[in-house]
Specification:
Blueprint (H helix, E strand, L loop, with lengths): L4 E7 L3 H15 L3 E3 L8 E6 L4 H14 L2 H4 L4 E5 H7 L2 H5 L5 E3 L7 H9 L4 E3 L7 H4 L11 E5 L1 E2 L10 H4 L4 E2 L2 H13 L4 E5 L9 E2 L2 E2 L2 H9 L6 E5 L8 H9 L6 E3 L7 H6 L6 H14 L4 E8 L6 H14 L3 E6 L16 H25 L4 E9 L6 E5 L4 E4 L9 E9 L4 E5 L1
Parallel strand pairs: 1-2, 1-3, 3-4, 4-5, 5-6, 7-10, 10-13, 14-15, 15-16, 19-21
Antiparallel strand pairs: 8-9, 11-12, 17-18, 17-20, 18-19, 20-21
Helix pairs in contact: 10-11, 14-15
Bound molecules: S-adenosyl-L-homocysteine, iron/sulfur cluster and FE3-S4 cluster.
Length: 439
């Protein structure tokens, strides 16, 4: 009997890649692979890559350079590149790094099995098509093993928005929503395997419009159906676009108890001039108005966002408008990035802000965001929150979980087990986590 082949997947980028890596591992599980935690003993290494900023894409080539010598140690080793760099650069990857045997774009993962058979025969395999067939139906999770209590579930993929800086519409393709019945089945299967919280994923998740039994469903409709699943205790979704925040979704935040009070709603800039140039089709004011409506139904909602600083032609005044917006919103979490030129996107042709100016703005913005973050963390002290316990802590008797607001919470001397949702009192705020006692 031959021993199973070993698969090592390294995942970069967004949560959708995390979900995709799980699906790929399951698909290759069907070809006799078991997962391993190190590249050293693998027979197949897959890098699931991200193309969003230049640094993210370059990381892939340096990692490939490091992995190449492993082929001399294990002649059976095959190396593959998946994800958004695979989609964007295709055959160029094999030219730049000939140690790569396989390149597969995000829309072709259901063909990974055939591709693996091909590379085992010593050929190379490349697939960056946007096929017609339902990838997700083919990749359906068939596992039965117990899972961690919090899981991702991709409900929508791709983007039609074409923000001037962004590669996603090119790497993930047009917006596609998965049918609601397929998703509800997958969610039920996850719950049977121990999942208590699902985070619905999509590049524009609130643009979801999947087929339901009585016509197309919105994200709010889907959330209300998920709400009916016994054993599923929490629902989240990410990432949303301000223009797709429908009235029914806002209403759901007011009355669906399982829907957590946390919303990642990227705004990118606080300057209308820059937003227009970014092709964002919302203004700072419309964003703030929207927030007002959300906070009217769910006053405690914790806001999270994304920012780009140093977008081409951003002036000091534009940047100050971003700082002003941040002061008004007070984000509990926010991710801010220096603009990175992506070849092929409309903004790539435009004059850049000097690097030192962009660096200085990024530092100022991050300082402000961190200050708000800390104040919000500290405001949790003394409050009673509910925690989904996700794992054991480092200390004996300690468990770690997430609050409604997605803060990491450590519980000392816990009775609670992994997968439990428990009430706690927050006793201390540390830099990256909260400490709590079980009630
Ligand atoms: N679909 C989401 C986010 C996609 S990418 C949305 O619409 O907001 C995640 C974040 O990366 C973006 O929100 C943006 O802030 C950042 N990003 C995208 N392209 C970038 C670029 N060229 N340079 C710097 N940051 C970028
Ligand atoms: Fe990119 Fe804009 Fe689409 Fe978000 S909405 S994925 S930033 S193009
Ligand atoms: Fe990166 Fe692709 Fe996600 S570019 S952020 S991995 S959609």
């Amino acid at each position: 009997m031959t021993s199973p082949k070993k698969l090592f997947i390294k995942t970069y980028g967004c949560q959708m890649n995390v979900y995709d890596s799980e699906r790929m591992a399951e698909a290759l599980g069907g070809q006799g692979y078991v997962e391993t935690k190190t590249a050293d003993d693998a027979d197949m290494i897959l890098l699931n890559t991200c193309h969003i900023r230049e640094k993210a894409a370059e990381k892939v080539y340096s990692e490939l350079g490091r992995l190449k010598p492993l082929k001399a140690l294990n002649p059976d080793l095959k190396i593959g590149v998946a994800g958004c760099v695979a989609q964007a650069e295709g055959a160029e990857i094999m030219r730049r790094q000939p140690a790569v045997d396989l390149v597969v774009g995000p829309q072709s993962y259901h063909r990974l099995g055939e591709m693996e058979a091909k590379v085992r025969k010593g050929e190379s395999a490349l697939d960056t098509d946007f096929p017609e067939e339902d990838k997700f139906e083919h990749l359906k999770s068939r596992g039965k093993a117990k899972r961690a209590p919090a899981a991702f579930l991709t409900v929508q993929e791709g983007c039609d928005k074409f923000c001037a800086f962004c590669v996603v519409p090119y790497t993930r393709g047009a917006e596609v929503s998965r049918p609601a019945t397929q998703l509800l089945d997958e969610a039920r299967a996850l719950v049977d395997r121990g999942v208590r919280e699902v985070t619905l994923l999509g590049q524009n998740v609130n643009a979801y419009h999947g087929a339901g039994p009585n016509g197309d469903m919105t994200l709010a409709n889907l959330i209300r159906e998920l709400d009916k699943i016994d054993g599923l205790q929490r629902i989240r979704y990410t990432t949303s676009h301000p223009n797709d925040m429908g009235d029914d979704l806002i209403a759901a935040h007011g009355d669906v108890e399982k829907l957590m009070p946390y919303l990642h709603l990227p705004v990118q800039s606080g300057s209308d001039r820059i937003l227009k140039r970014m092709n964002r089709s919302h203004t700072a004011e419309s964003y703030l108005k929207l927030l007002e409506r959300i906070r009217a139904v769910r006053p405690d909602i914790l806001m999270s966002g994304d920012f780009i600083v140093g977008f081409p032609e951003e002036t000091d005044e534009d940047f100050e408008a971003t700082m002003e917006l941040v002061r008004e919103v007070r984000y509990g979490y926010a991710y801010s990035f220096k603009y990175s030129t992506r070849p092929g996107t409309p903004a790539a042709e435009r004059p850049l802000v000097p690097a030192e100016v962009a660096d200085e703005r990024l530092q100022r913005l991050q300082k402000l965001i961190t200050q708000h973050q800390r104040e919000i963390q500290e405001s949790m002290v003394g409050r009673e929150l509910s925690i989904l316990v996700e794992k054991q802590g480092r200390e004996p008797g300690q468990v770690i979980g997430k609050s409604e607001y997605l803060h990491a919470v450590h519980i000392e001397n816990a009775r609670a087990q992994i997968g439990d949702v428990v009430k706690v009192k927050i006793v201390e705020a540390k830099t990256n986590s909260l400490m709590a006692h079980e009630l």
